[in-house]
Every structure is written in C-alpha cells, then in structure tokens.
Fold this sequence. Notes:
Layout: H1 9-12, H2 24-39, E1 51-55, H3 57-67, E2 77-81, H4 96-106, H5 114-122, H6 126-130, H7 157-163, E3 171-176, H8 185-189, H9 191-199, H10 201-208, H11 220-232, H12 240-265, E4 271-277, H13 323-340, E5 363-369, E6 383-389, H14 393-401
Parallel strand pairs: 1-2, 2-3, 3-4, 4-5
Antiparallel strand pairs: 5-6
Helix pairs in contact: 4-5, 9-10, 12-14
Amino acid sequence: MKCFFNAYSAGFLSTGDDVAPGNYAMKDQVAALRWVRDNIEQFGGDAERVTIQGQSAGSKSVHFHMFSPSSRGLFHRAISQSGSAFMPWVLPPADPLAKAKEQAEVVGCPATNSAALVRCLRGMEAKDIVKKELELWQPVLESKSASNPEPFLTLAPLQLVQTGEFYKVPWLMGSTSEDGAFFGARNITDHSEVEQFSEHMDVQGPEDFFLKLSLNESLIPETWQRIRSFYFGKKEIPDPSDLIKLYTDRYVVHAVHKAAILHSEAGHEPIYRYNFAYRGLYSFGDLAEIGSTHMNLGVVHMDDLIYLIPLPVFNVWPAGHPDKRVIDTMVTLFTNFATYGNPTPSGGKSEVKWLPFSVNNRSYMNIAHDMSQTPGFYGIRPVRLSMEHDLYKDRMEFWDSLPLKENADDFE
Length: 412
C-alpha cells in the first residue's frame, strides 16, 4: 500500500505549543499504519508481518517511525533507501516557532501569537502558501499535554539511539554508489557553474553542503577547509568525480553510515546494508538538471527503484537485456526480507548469503557489474552480488572526524 504525505509546511509546521504541535505528516502515516493493522486481514495479509518501505524522504520517515512510541507494534520490518533521520536537514529544529513565524510573514500572515498565525494560514488557499513555501521542513520535538496526548516525537533520534530507546525491527537499508550526484548534477556538469563554484568556493561550499545545520558558526571556515582539502586537494577547479563523491557523502551516504553504526552499537539486529552500483539502460541521472556537458553521473539517487517498482518513465526493456536479471534479483531480495526478515533465507536461490551488518564487520551487499565478464550485446556487464566491508572507509572516517552535531556523543 502506498502512503502519500505532505513533506512541507502543511506536514511539519509547528508553533512549539498546543496550537500547532506539529508532525502532522508523521501522524498521518501512523493513522495509515493503524488502518493497515485493522484491515490487512481483509486483503489476505498478516497484521503481524507488516513491512514499511521508503526512499529518500520516505526513507527518513521509516527511520523516524523507529523512534516514535506511536508507531511501535504497527510494523515488523523496515526498508530504508537512501536516507536516515540523521541527515542534517531533518534533525529536529531548536526553535520551530521561529520557522513558523518566517513562513507566516512571507505569505502575509501575522506572527504576533500562535493562534493568530495558525488561523491565518489555515484560512489561506493552499496554492498561495505553496508559491512561497520555505524549504527544509523536518519533524519537531513535541510535549505531551491534555490537547496533545500522543506526541509523535519527544526526544531527538540521536539521543534515543544512544540510550537504545527505539523500536528494533529487522532493517534493510542502503544507498547507491553515486547517490548525491543527482542533487548536484547541474553544479557538476555545467562549466559556468563549476567555474563560479571554484571562484567563490569558500562562501558557496558551506552553503551548498549545509554546514550551518551541523556546525557552530565559528567552526564552519576551518571545517570547510578540511573538506575542501580532502576532496579537492590543491585543485583550483574540482574534477566532476571529486564533486560527485562530496555530494554523495554529504547528502546521503554519511547519514546512512551513521545510522548503521549507531543502531548496531545500540544492539539493533539484524541490519542488512547494501550499496547499489549497477548502471543499466536507464538512470535518473539522465533526468537530472544537466548543464553544458552531458555525462554519465554513475548510479544516482533513486536508481535502485528502477529495479523494484514499475515506473512510468522507465518501463520497457529489450528482450534478453541484462537489466531483467537485476529486476528479478532485487525483487527477490526485497520480498524475501519482507516475508522472512532475511533477504537471503535458508533454502533460497541466492548464491551469495547476505550477512548482517555489525560494528565489527561493517558488512554490506554490493550489487554491481561483474567486472570479470565482457559487456554483452547491449554493452552492459551482467550483475554480480558480493559481500564487502567498510563502504567508502576513508571517506566515512573523514566525516566521522569532523565536529558535526550529528557526530557528538552528547547530542541534545
């Protein structure tokens, strides 16, 4: 079953009090999960074997449900693709009212008090708010009260994971090998954009990579210089491959890495992690905002979805195309997990056993091309599954070493 939700102000605006406590998008999802629990048997399903799955923003939602008492017992497996609740732009804000006031002011609503602010916004046409919608809305921390008896989230996920106070269900999670290239496509491929970035790198870099969300203001310049040196060295103009790695690590992979590590340290098992590195006939990179130079961006954000669900834009393959085997492989792995809590159960057809992730082994399933094979008729090598360890080890150790809020041991 698909569950749609509002990822912007209608879903997450909060005044920080009982007037608009917030997290409406997440509460809508909880309501949907309760409906599934109460009705799934009418459709031949099992209320004790519900799997929730999300990609990108949906992946963050899946992760947040592990931390909410409201969601506990409503699902029994979780699949997160290219996202986690530890991404800097979804960390709960310190002052949600300030953002609510900012949104109110840009659409002409009074921000003098919560009641007037919310009354005005609710009286507006939705399209008029959408035209001036602020970016980066995220779940907020709520307080329990008589009028808000069931808050979705009362403590930050980074606090809860450190105490082990979260819902531990079998978890399949991962990302694509060049995940972030989709978000930075224009800045990577447009010569003028690359030149502008290079010329103003010390100003634009911290903005493009959201350092203000993760660092105290005084730490930003030094931290950016460390990032610049690590990815670009002494280059005045970064190579496309350097930018792809930076976008991938900052936008997606480090947050996924952080989630796997912290959950494993808290005793969460099993966790099955993957890296999807197969570039087939289609890619969302071909639909990204490309600049003056068209290039293969690699295996970008959402490319794993191509092999899991029918998509209107990518749905026709020639007879005998190697992508068809990838579809069969991916669907089998994911449905096995939803059915058994294990993507490669005993007695299954997979030739490779998917080993759970742990802090000590850091295992992940690498879904990539078989480089020992020559490209076939369609110019594509067949898929190969292999168990690997420590995805992007040096890059992740670098990000773990930075003084980011999401790296703090005493996060508040």
